[in-house]
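Risk register update: the risk of archive-format incompatibility is retired. Evidence:
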Amino acid sequence: MGAWAFYLTTIIVYGAVDAMACMALNVEFGFAGISNFGFIIFQSAGAYAAAVLSMPPAATSNGGFQQYVLGWNLPWPFPWIGAAIVGGLLALPFVFLVGKRLRGDFAAVGLLVSAVLLNVLVKDFVPLLNGDAGISIVPAPFQSIWNPQALGYQFAYGGVAVVLTVLVYFLFRRLTESPYGRSLRAMRDNDVVADSLGKNLRLQRTTTLVVGGMVAGLSGAILVGFISLWAPGAWGYAETIVLFAAIILGGAGNHKGAILGALLVPLGFEEITRFLPPVANPTLVPALEWVAIGLLIILFLWFRPEGILPERRRILSGAPASALAPVPSGKDTDALIQLGNLDELNFRKLLRLEETANDHRVILSTQGLTKIFHGVTVVSDVSIEVRQGRLTGLIGPNGAGKSTTLAMLAGTLASSGGRIFYEGRDITDVPSNQRANLGLVRTFQLASEFKKLTVLENLVSAIPKQSGDSFWGAMRGRRHWGREDKENIERAMEMLGGFGLTQYADAYAGGLSGGQRRLVEIMRALLAEPKVLLLDEPMAGVHPRLAHKIGDQLTRLCEAGMTVLMVEHELSIMDAFCDPVIVLAEGKVLAQGTMADLRANLEVVEAYLVG
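Archived output:
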């Protein structure tokens, strides 16, 4: 019975350590979309920090047979606190690998390579980390008072580990069930769009990596204090693959799924092999473990990619889940869209438009704007002016540079030359998220909804200056941001009612038809409270019956003080609503004026208006 009791304490500690690590990686990967294949580094660094902070100086420790730095002989809990701090600090250099320049698969490869290189460094640099031998005889917490080998001590140790795991669970739950968590998931689904709505991707990724690194470091400290040993060979990059397998099995984007995956994969596989009969080749069982883990990943990705406990749908409207309307499908779906009370919407109040005189001053302009891709000039010396309160059109043949120009204006694409001015300020070098916060918001040529967010979440995520849309705001809890979030949800519901999509408020945006997704994108851009709205083919995929109704509302918005620059191929829309209209051809401004003027211009007719 005694042996089984000690075995149970081991299961408890290892389960807590694996659960903490999986939850931390799940926040990075499942919520923020950061494929951190270097995750094990943070856990290893925390374990090493806890070891050397709790040990005496190397020269006086057990005859000085091993080398390591520090050796401060600190009492518990300071080594564990130090481990968390080291894990967080170590995350800061990794931010450069997951910033705006290096994203997605490239960032994942960069993190993986970093993990391999650091593991090699640790094994080869003896003075700092004692090389491949690692560090042994690490003092257990309070070992001068209690016997670490006693059953009571080990159960108490396991109890502390479980309590800390529960606290980590509630920490991450508070973080991810807030407006900030909504922004993390938006970044995961489409980081370019999230950036264009004013989200600070670098800060969000930094915070996520630092918090994940701190929890990983703490989990490493718990483990090293229990086994009294730190060896670099046990922290190879392959261990991160095991944690990813656990998250995939349990359910990415679900904290309980991460805990379940931790119990099934790193803990379950390790313990099951203890009960297998001995085999002639001692390396066979570990090899079979990797084969089994690989097969599990493939099978779950193929048959159940959402995992055992999928990410749950957030029902912000307050409607019961049973009342969710099915999303219609079929080629005639967009023809069935019925706009609601758009004419009754008070856009000035709903979008918080400033009471400004509509004096048609120049609010956005360019001078010699140029874009070169790999030696090919796509936009050449474009100089345009957009006046406040006007609905300005931008037309031209395919490949004329319209969308490229719009992307440069919004900052989602850097220009190769020229200047951009907004409200008299040179914003050429201002990042796109800061331009959005200044009131310069864009939509995209292709549907760009946040697919795994509901329609209502898509809209609410765009509303700027939310008190819960920051790490510290989220940590202050629902009492801090709950009332404001409720008001924002009501604003978004009013917008949905105007566009006739209330019944799909809690449906995943990725499941809507093309026209519905386009309407969601327009509503989301409006709720970002733009002063200047850059629309890239907003009527694409929208049924012709609805296009003119949307054009009427854009005119109303301009009358209320908003400025709109719209790229559109449907010339009837330009005829009805846009004045002036700018024509681009071969990357250059060809002409500008009313559609009547342009139709009388032979160059424009030959370049674009033929027929």
